[in-house]
Design a protein that fits this description.
Elements: E1 5-11, E2 18-25, H1 43-54, H2 56-59
Antiparallel strand pairs: 1-2
Length: 66
C-alpha cells in the first residue's frame, strides 16, 4: 500500500506462482470497486508495487527510514 494505491498479490504457496493481482487507485476509487491491475495505463504503478512487495516490509519504508 502507498498513499495513492493498494496492491494485492494472490500466490500459490506451493509453487510460488502469482495467481492474480489487484491494484486500486485510492485517488479515483477510494472504495476499491475497480481493479486497475490490467489497465495498460497503470503498468508502471503495477511494476512499482510488485517491487515494493518483493522488497518486503523494509523495502517499503521511505528512503529516510531505510
Amino acid at each position: 500500500r502507498t498513499d495513492h494505491y493498494r496492491y494485492v498479490q494472490w500466490k500459490d504457496w506451493k509453487s510460488g506462482k502469482t495467481l492474480a493481482e489487484e491494484l486500486y487507485d485510492h485517488q479515483t476509487d477510494p472504495n476499491e470497486m475497480l481493479n486497475v491491475a490490467d489497465d495498460p495505463d497503470q503498468a508502471a504503478s503495477l511494476f512499482q508495487h510488485r517491487r515494493i512487495l518483493e522488497g518486503g516490509w523494509k523495502g517499503a519504508l521511505p528512503l529516510r527510514m531505510n
